[in-house]
Amino acid sequence: MRKGAISDAFKNAAGRTGLGLDLKQTEDLSPAEAAHEEAEARWKAALKVAQMPEAVAIRKLSEVMTGEAGALTTIDDLLTATGVVGPAAFDALVEKLEGKK
């Protein structure tokens, strides 16, 4: 995937949430890396839309996913707890944050 396509994907992801991004040029990424970056950008955009710091979102999602606010303490814990891997894990967290699942 070329740099312009990656930038366009980030802008599109942000645009769907009503945010604008100022992107820096980065070295060429593999398709897997680009997909991860895009998914992480969707997560960060969802946090901005919810006006919620990541630490607060982690506590909230920990409670939603386990019944205990302090059970999952890091983003990696949450990603693992989704039961899916790769970019789909970020998407699962976004859906939970938005109350869709």
Write down the Rg: 14 Å
N-to-C series of helices and strands: HHHHH
Distance between the termini: 31 Å
Oligomer: single chain
| Total helical elements | 5
SS content category = mainly alpha
Q: Would you kindly provide a brief summary of this structure?
A:
This protein is mainly α and 101 residues long. It is built from 5 helices and no strands.
Write the layout of secondary structure elements.
Blueprint: H1 3-16, H2 31-50, H3 54-66, H4 75-81, H5 87-97
Helix pairs in contact: 1-2, 2-5
Write up what this structure looks like:
- 64% of the residues lie in helices and 0% in strands.
- By secondary structure, the chain is mainly alpha-helical.
Task: Please describe the structure with a list of short key phrases separated by commas or semicolons.
single chain, about 100 residues, mainly alpha, about 65% helix, about 0% strand, globular
